[in-house]
Amino acid sequence: MAGMSVAGYLRASALNAEIRSIYDFAAIRDLCRVSGDLGRFGGLLKLWLAERKGEGAPAVDVDKLLRDARAVVEEIRQRIVLR
Question: In 3-state terms, what secondary structure has residue 22?
C-alpha cells in the first residue's frame, strides 16, 4: 500500500521515516458515498417510474438519466479498486 519495495519499506522503517500510503483513503471514502448516493437515486427514480408511469419527464430522458447514473457508478467502482 505504500508503493515501495520491501527493501525500501524496511529501510524507511529502520530509519523511523514516515511511510505514507499511495492511496488517498478520504477520497476513496467520498467516492464510495457518491456511488451509494447515485444508487439510491436510481432506486428512487425506478420507484417513481413504477408508481407514476407517464408523468413528468419523457421516458427516453429518464432512461438516459438512468444509464448515465449507472455509467458513473461503474466508473467510480473502477477508480476505487485497490491494487
Answer: coil
